[in-house]
Amino acid sequence: MSNTTEYGWNEATGISLITKLRSDLKAAMLARNETVKGAVRIIISEFPTKITQPITLESGKKSSRPKRDDEISNDEIITVIMGLSKSEKQTLGFTGQPTSDYLQVLELYLPKMASEEEILAWAQDNIDLSQFKSPMQAMGAIMKHFGKTADGNVVKKIMGSIKE
To answer: How many CA atoms, within 13 angstroms, populate the side-chain half-sphere of residue 10?
Structure first.
């Protein structure tokens, strides 16, 4: 995948993820970069069904409507991209391929994941395991701190390796 333009996003850029996706889509179309254009279009196409606002109709029925761009948070978009990334990894697992251009584009828009070392160091500095019956019960606090940047399976593995 050749990059002539800087695609991707991180919080340090100071612009919202939705704005960056839309500008990258425009840049990819102008650069005729079919890989990025296709991936970003897939991400944006997920918004109307995955990112909705609950509403109550005049009849009293509960319903929902797609959120407007200004109502969509970066976390909601990251959740959508993580879902697409997970399903692509499963598909690649079935076909035996290590990665795909599509997956590489998706990962450009995801936050950098915390490493096992970072998670373990934070847990040792901030969590008193004596408060919990087992180290696994501390997972909630760790996941809350790291949010979308920690993989639950990695945290589980780390907590499972800690001896009581």
So the answer is: 8
DSSP 2: -
Contacts 24+ apart (CB under 8 A), 18-22: 18/69, 18/72, 18/74, 18/77, 20/109, 21/77, 21/109, 22/69
Q: What is the pLDDT of residues 148-158, one digit of tens each?
A: 888 888 888 88
Q: What is the pLDDT of residues 107-124, one digit of tens each?
A: 999 988 888 888 888 888
Residue 43 token pair: 């991400």
CB 154 within 8 A of CB 116: yes
Q: How far apart are CA 5 and CA 58, in angstroms?
A: 48
The predicted model scores a pTM of 0.78
> What are the residue boundaries of the structural domains of the chain, listed by start?
11-108, 116-161
